[in-house]
């Protein structure tokens, strides 16, 4: 295989990964795994679909990726949860962060309420990794593409709220959220016409407010004055 990757299907993601590693003749620490589909069980076998993964060899040894996956395994073993971590992306020397993906029966427990447990796990892994490395490293921990789904939900929330702000010329404050979520909101609306975003509050109470931009305020004010003027002329 010139591209050192293959796609395999099986009843579960774990079984598909196992098939791929056996065929490649490598260990789990030597591969990157992209889960294409987690599969469907169906009802009485009807409508079921196999899990599908793309497995690629890590062509360059990455000490951070190896340390990260082992650290995650140790922590998950301590928690006694039925999940399995794999390397989704091994990072590179340009600063791209290692991504560790977690799959399994207890995946929801690792996410926690609004991703709180997942954020805590990621912070702990990064603290351990950076304490054992000469240079600062970054590791992202994800659970069955939870971060992708969460970011998509945040972008939808941001755009929907921004439209309300623009249409009603009113400021709306969102619920408090962690820094990573706030960054998604800021980025989503950075090019959204007619609104601007600001952060306020401290610690876990820090939140984003979406408000009309100065141009929108001026335009709305001008329209209001024109409407009042027209109304007064009709009365006269």
Characterise the protein shown here.
This protein is an alpha+beta fold and 236 residues long. It has three domains: 1-59; 60-144, GMP Synthetase, Chain A, domain 3; 148-222, Ribosomal Protein S8, Chain: A, domain 1. It contains seven helices and nine strands, in the order E-H-E-E-H-E-E-H-H-E-H-E-H-E-E-H. The chain has helices spanning 13-24, 63-79, 107-111, 116-131, 146-168, 179-189, 214-235; strands at 5-10, 31-37, 51-57, 83-89, 98-104, 139-143, 172-173, 195-200, 207-212. The longest helix has 23 residues, at 146-168. It starts with a strand and ends with a helix.
How would you briefly describe this protein structure?
Helices cover 45% and strands 22% of the residues.
Which features would summarize this protein structure in a list?
GMP Synthetase, Chain A, domain 3, 22% strand, three-stranded mixed beta sheet, three-stranded antiparallel beta sheet, Ribosomal Protein S8, Chain: A, domain 1
**Oligomer classification:** single chain
Q: Give the CATH level 1 class of the largest domain.
A: Alpha Beta
Per CATH, the architecture of the largest domain is 2-Layer Sandwich
Proportion of strand residues: 15-25%
Low-confidence stretches: none
**How many structural units, i.e. domains?**
3
The residue-averaged pLDDT reads 84
Percent helix range: 40-55%
Large-scale geometry: globular
In DSSP terms, counting alpha (H) and pi (I) runs of 4 or more, how many helices? 7
Radius of gyration: 24 Å
Q: What summary fits the major beta sheet?
A: 3 strands, antiparallel
Task: Assign the CATH topology of the largest domain.
Answer: GMP Synthetase, Chain A, domain 3
- Order of SSEs: EHEEHEEHHEHEHEEH
Question: Spatial order of the strands in the main sheet?
Answer: 1-3-2
Structural class designation:
alpha+beta
| Extended strand count | 9
Instruction: Say which CATH homologous superfamily of the largest domain is assigned.
Output: K homology (KH) domain
